[in-house]
Design goal:
InterPro entries: Rbsml_uS13_C, Ribosomal_uS13, Ribosomal_uS13-like_H2TH, Ribosomal_uS13_bac-type, Ribosomal_uS13_CS
Radius of gyration: 27 Å
CATH class of the domain at 3-63: Mainly Alpha
Protein name: Small ribosomal subunit protein uS13
CATH topology of the domain at 3-63: Helicase, Ruva Protein, domain 3
Oligomer: single chain
Organism: Candidatus Shapirobacteria bacterium CG09_land_8_20_14_0_10_38_17
GO cellular component, one term: small ribosomal subunit
GO molecular function: rRNA binding; structural constituent of ribosome; tRNA binding
CATH architecture of the domain at 3-63: Orthogonal Bundle
């Protein structure tokens, strides 16, 4: 497996698809990277020569990818939280940040569904007895 910018790239994939495994390299900028490196889009990773791999490393190394990009994104989110902006508060509450609705959906951010509803009177009173609340209520009524 060739290693580009610290990421193992699968050998059987086409080069344009394989490069998207690198954080910060997406479908929109893969073609620009391959053009700058002078590599054909139709090649597979196992067909690349050592020179082509080093050229790819150099071209992608000039970009902000992987650790540097993750660090910058993390700093930006921390800044939003620190200044108390709306987006920062949404990050703190672990809710969608970009205006998505939360009444339904938003399961990836909010987690598994939990039903919250009215409790039956017996269940409610049993909970009070366990906590000793019922005794205090009787004393207050006297």
């Amino acid at each position: 497996m060739p290693r580009i910018v610290g990421v193992n790239i699968p050998e059987k994939d086409k080069i344009d698809l394989a490069l998207t495994r690198i954080y910060g390299v997406g479908q929109s900028n893969v073609l620009a990277i391959l053009m700058r490196a002078g590599i054909s889009v139709n090649k597979r990773v196992d067909q690349l020569s050592d020179n082509e791999i080093t050229t790819l490393n150099r071209v992608i190394g000039e970009m902000k990818v992987e650790g540097n990009l993750r660090e910058e994104v993390g700093r930006n989110i921390e800044r939003l939280k620190r200044i108390g902006s709306y987006r920062g508060k949404r990050h703190l509450a672990n809710l969608p940040v970009r205006g998505q609705r939360t009444r339904t959906n938003a399961r990836t951010k909010r987690g598994k569904r939990m039903t919250i509803g009215a409790l039956k009177k017996e269940v409610y009173n049993v909970g009070k007895v366990e906590k000793g609340v019922e005794k205090e209520e009787k004393e207050e009524k006297k």
